Amino acid sequence: MENESKKKIMFDRMKKKKKEVKLVRRIVLVIALFILLVGGIGGFIAYNYVKSALEPLDPKSEELIEVQIPIGSGLDTISAILEKSGIVKDAKIFKYYAKFNNESDFQAGDYSLTKAMTFDEIIKSLKTGKVYRKPVFSLTVPEGLTLEQIGTVVEKKTGHSADAFFTLVTDEAFIDKMMAKYPVLLTEEIKGENVRYALEGYLYPATYPFFDENPSLEEIVESMLSNTDKTISTYYELLQSEGKSVHWLLTFASLLEEEATAQTDRQTIASVFYNRLDANMPLQTDPTVLYALGSHKDRVLFEDLEVDNPYNTYQNQGLPPGPIANAGKSSIEAVLDPSKTNYFYFLADKKGVNHFSVTYEEHLQKVDEFLK
């Protein structure tokens, strides 16, 4: 009996041990499957992350981003700068890509890169000291153009009509969208009661490279607005300190752009306008009359000066309600840094040379001398 009891106890222990071993095996199997599953998901996520990091951040982007590579920068520093500037997604992946391909000898300097550039294009640019990416086409918008004239330029270089361009830049929904995106640049002033077109003067004159054969009109217009924002942002703090607005600046600058031919002229004409404004004299600038008339004329007649329009600075004191054209950087800077003069009058002779006067009598003498 005692032997049978011992055998039973041993059998029960073996049975229990087998159950424990089975349970442990099951637990180990579940844990192994869980690790494999998590590892698989993690691997899949890691693979997708690396794959996306190797691709351009935004293949359709045409925005030029200024990137400065200091002298003596190593690959670690360059990679970090590219990530911080928004050119690449992950600095480490760019660094490892460059190392794997044995790329080195990067040049210090200032670069205008885009989010649409591949790693190879970025590397080639940094090695040659030049932006490697070649645009499909470029669109040059000269200084002193109105929205309607810019539309004609766009029509000649793209598949978009001037009418479609003008419809977009005067569309309320599009304007509101841009105001939300560029709140410091585009304020409620552009919707002032007497402003003819909200975006007049806000499309920056420059050459725009496009890397897509058929960029949308929104892309084209927004690239110009972005450039204006980038240019004017340098002066935001100064304008705020002087209690002036972007709208005021671009309106003033547009008058200089239409009146002047050289940098010195812009600064001197700016001084004339400032002197007139301080003396509560009307600006009396012919380009505002032509803008009020809505048509170009080789010569402004006396009867034209009588046109009843808020933009006519012969009939209204102060600046017009808004810009009359797109102004370049030299005109913008002339507004902010005018010459110091006592001039109140100026005229352009038949060769386009401007002549300045302090008194009206002196001005009339120059009219007789240069225009008759």
Automatic annotation (TrEMBL):
Site description Important for catalytic activity, residues in chain: E259
GO biological process, one term: peptidoglycan biosynthetic process
Annotated coiled-coil segments of the chain: none
Pfam family name, one: YceG
The entry's keywords: Cell membrane, Cell wall biogenesis/degradation, Lyase, Membrane, Transmembrane, Transmembrane helix
Catalytic activity: a peptidoglycan chain = a peptidoglycan chain with N-acetyl-1,6-anhydromuramyl-[peptide] at the reducing end + a peptidoglycan chain with N-acetylglucosamine at the non-reducing end
Domain of life: Bacteria
CC annotations in GO: plasma membrane
Broad EC category: lyase
CDD domains, per the entry: MltG_like
GO MF annotations, alphabetized: lytic endotransglycosylase activity
Gene3D superfamilies per UniProt: Classic Zinc Finger, Endolytic murein transglycosylase
Keyword Cell membrane belongs to the record: yes
Xref: InterPro entries: MLTG-like
EC number: 4.2.2.29
UniProt record similarity statement: Belongs to the transglycosylase MltG family.
Function: Functions as a peptidoglycan terminase that cleaves nascent peptidoglycan strands endolytically to terminate their elongation.
Protein name: Endolytic murein transglycosylase
Species, as recorded: Psychrobacillus vulpis
Gene giving rise to this polypeptide: mltG
